[in-house]
Every structure is written in structure tokens, then in C-alpha cells.
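Predict the 3D structure for this chain.
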Amino acid sequence: GPCCGGRVQPRAVMAASGGSGASSGENHVKEETAWERFAPEFLKSMVYGGMDGIITTFAIVCAACGADFASKDILIVGVSSLVADAISMGIGDFLSDRTEQDYARTVREKKRQLLQHSPQAAHQVLVQAYCKQGISASDAEKMARILGTYEGAFLDHCMIHDDGVMPPDDEPSSVQKGVVTFFSFLVFGSVPLAVFLVGDTIQHMFSRSPLLVSSVASAMTMFVLGVLSGTLTQQGVLRSGIFMTLHGLLAAYAAYAIGQGMDAMGNGEDSTNSSWASAGGGISSDGAGQDL
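Done. Predicted structure below.
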């Protein structure tokens, strides 16, 4: 068990030392493990993948509309980019989390080796870390001595207070986080594109541009994701929702303007080439007439 040298999570250490009995402390830790510990990790991956997915795809849609692409072309470019980016984001989240967890395990193993081969040195490391936080030397000695009887808790505190590294998580796994990011990117990123599947129908029935409907749907989705982000970070949910929406709309507007500008440049270049071709054709005809 955790009190016999096993690994103890920081929240578990704090809950177990909360002043209630040992059994009630253990029950409280189990309740945290069921929801408070794992659900925020999945929610973070979902918001992370969802926001990136909808903003990236919405920007691509706006750029394509600015360049006057047909609905079919927008769907081809958008869906291709959506799937490729979702794969990239899922793998990226997996690799990032795995690297972080591997580093935490390396730090923990170094602290374990120090504790096994030089307990007094490990004790002093934790005492000094506590003293740097303003704890008196005598209290730091007492705290380190008590934790020294629980290897898991001692290692966790050494990592947090000396190295500034959170202990590695056993769950959820890096693979699970990567999968959540992948599907979140795919699902939320499909919102701006879904409208263009029935773009002609929308235009005929409601006399509204598919881009306008896509913009409204995307803005509403970004606001919801912003609210979820605010809930996750325990900040103002309304402010977070508005900020995320403005962030996405700004990126989309920039993409639309660039697409429109590049399209205008391309049309201007085509006109210039046509003019030169016409002029060249005239000279060639005159030359041919002179030769004749």
C-alpha cells in the first residue's frame, strides 16, 4: 500500500495528512482518483485538440473562401488537412506526454538511488528545499524525518520541492491522451467543414452564404471550448469563452484576407501574362507578314 513504501501522489499525501482518520483519508484519496485526478487530464487533451482543430480548419476554410474556391475544392483541402493535422496533433501530444513522464521517472529514480545509498544526503536535500520555502530549519528537519519513513511520499516531496518536477502519473497513459487529442481535433475541426457538405442547399433555402453559417457555428463551438477551458483552469468561464472566440475569429479573418489578397495577385498576374501573350502574338504576325 502507499504507506509501506509505495508511490504516493502529492494530492494523496496532502489528503492523508489532513487531520481526519487514516481510513477516511484513504477513502477521500480513492474518490479523487476516480474523478478529480484523471478527468482533468482528459479534459485538457480534449480542449487542447478541439481548439487547435476548429481554429486551424476554420482558418483554412476562410482562406479558401477568400480565394474564391468552389465548395468541392474547400471540402477536399479542408478534409485532407483535417485528417493530417489530427494525426500529427495526436502523435505530438502522445510524444510530449511520454517525454515528460520519462523525464519524471528518471528524476525519481535518481532520488531513489540517493535515498538508498546516502539517506543522510537525501534527508538534507529535502530539508534545504523546505528551508528555501521559508520553513524554519527545525520544522524542516521534523518534516523530512517523518517523510523519511515513507519512501514514496519522501520521493514525491523531493521531486516537487527540490527539482520542481511533478511525480510521473500511472494513469491516464500517454496513448490515451494522444487518442483523445486526435478525436477531439477531428470532431471539433469538422464543424467549419460540415456546412459545405450542404452549402448549395443552405444558399438556396436560407439565402445565406455557407461561410456565414460556418462562421456562426464555429464561433459558438469555440465559445463552448473556451468555457470548458475556463472550467479546467478555474478562471472566469465567460471571459475565457469570449477570448477563445475572438482568438479564433482573428485567425480566420487574417486567413481570409491573405487568401483574398493572394487570389487578387494571381488574377493580376494572369491578366498581365495574357496581355504580353497578345502583344507577342501581334509582333509575330507582323514579322510573318514582313517575311512574306
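Residues 1-29, 282-292 have pLDDT under 50 and may be disordered.
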